[in-house]
Design goal:
Layout: H1 2-33, H2 39-46, H3 50-56, H4 60-81, H5 89-101, H6 104-112, H7 114-117, H8 120-123, H9 127-142, H10 151-172, H11 176-191
Helix pairs in contact: 1-2, 1-4, 1-6, 2-3, 4-9, 5-9, 5-11, 9-10, 10-11
InterPro entries: Homeodomain-like_sf (IPR009057), HTH-type_TetR-like_transc_reg (IPR050109), HTH_TetR (IPR001647)
DNA-binding region: 38-57
Keywords: DNA-binding, Transcription, Transcription regulation
């Protein structure tokens, strides 16, 4: 009987995790387009009842904190996929931009939502941040990145270019691949020694 109970608990835990993930994903997609959307709107987008959303996230701030944590996890995974240690550093940063570009809704929401901009989890330096800065320093040393551009300037430049690409696609109807191409072309020219 104990093994059956363990399976039931594991199934319930898996269901809870899937429901929580569905709510967070629906909230990111919805709030990126309409930051004023209510928790009821989030519930409808996630295909659950409003009480279910409140059970997982009693306050809007709880949902926003979960979104922040989710975005940081996705940034860490994207940084890993970009293989920043492979090849010239400038090319590594291009791969990173390609990976981050796919996180547009979540990252746009992070930039545009005051509660998330000031969220304590966003203010801490992460392993992804350190890896980025190390890649820039490597680019300076190997000569693939202009040494006159310091690490923080380049980090801000990358975020600004990504935001510009997301805005270009979102507000002008530019196809995503074209917006990303513009972003990468600009980055290439900006970093050139």
């Amino acid at each position: 009987m104990r093994m059956g109970e363990d399976r039931a608990v594991a199934a319930e835990s898996g269901t809870r995790a899937r429901t929580r993930r569905a709510i967070v994903q629906a909230a990111v997609a919805l709030l990126a387009g309409d930051p004023t959307a209510s928790l009821g709107d989030v519930a409808a987008a996630a295909g659950v009842g409003r009480t279910t959303v409140h059970r997982y996230f009693p306050e809007r701030s709880d949902l926003l904190a979960a979104i922040g944590a989710d975005v940081l996890e996705k940034v860490a995974a994207a940084t890993e996929r970009a293989r920043l240690d492979d090849g010239p550093a400038a090319k590594a940063l291009e791969r990173l931009c390609q990976e981050y570009f796919e996180l547009g809704d979540g990252l746009t929401l992070m930039f545009e939502t005051p509660q998330l901009t000031n969220w304590s989890g966003w203010e801490q330096e992460t392993a992804a941040d350190r890896h980025f800065l190390d890649t820039v320093r490597r680019g300076h040393a190997e000569g693939s990145i202009d040494p006159e551009l310091d690490e923080e300037w380049i980090r801000n430049l990358v975020w600004a270019l990504l935001y510009s690409a997301w805005e270009q696609a979102r507000t002008t109807g530019t196809p995503k691949h074209s917006a990303l191409t513009l972003c990468l072309r600009t980055l290439r020219k900006a970093l050139a020694p």
